[in-house]
Amino acid sequence: MYEILKGIFMSIAMLLFIWLIESLIEYYNYTSVTFRKFFFFSTVLIIVFLFVYYILRPFFALYKIGKFIDRKQAAHIISSYFPEVQDKLLNTLELGEHIDSNYNNQLLLASIEQRTAQLNPLPFKIALPFKSLKKSFYYFISGSVVIAIIFIFSPSVFSEGSYRIIDYNTIYQKPAPFQFQFSNYNKYIKRGELLPVELIITGAYIPDQVYISIGDNLFLMERDSHRRNSFKFDIKNLNNDIVIFFKADNYQSKSYPVKVLASPILKNFVIDVFPPAYTGISKFSLKNSGDLNIPYGSKVKWTFSSNYTDSVFLIFDSTQIPCNRVGEHFVFERKFLKSHNYSLKLNNRYFSETNNVHYQISLIPDLFPEINMQM
Question: Given CA atoms 103, 107, 110, 114 in this order, what sign does their dihedral have?
Answer without folding.
Answer: negative
